[in-house]
Specification:
mainly alpha
């Protein structure tokens, strides 16, 4: 492996790590924002309503994580994407 190829792999991994961290920060923001918005909107006081609000906020943050990581952080093209598709189709059989 050449030095240039090694540098390219390291910079690609570092970029993935930074994107993954930014997605994590956005998930926290979604969870915090949705929780506070729903608590203020519905004037929640009971533990059941707070639990429901927490569930909704967590579900939206998880969806945010999945979509951003799939489309932005771990996007792949070419042979890597085809291999991942092949593996997932084998796993679903």
């Amino acid at each position: 492996m050449t030095v240039d190829r090694l540098k390219e792999k390291l910079s690609s991994g570092a970029a993935d790590f930074v994107r993954f961290g930014l997605v994590g920060i956005s998930n926290s923001a979604v969870d915090f924002g949705v929780t506070n918005l729903l608590v203020l909107t519905f004037k929640a006081k009971s533990s059941l309503s707070l639990m429901a609000i927490s569930f909704v906020a967590c579900a939206l943050a998880t969806l945010n994580s999945y979509l951003l990581n799939r489309k932005w952080t771990f996007r792949r093209s070419g042979p890597a994407r085809r291999a991942a598709r092949s593996l997932s189709s084998l796993r679903s059989r």
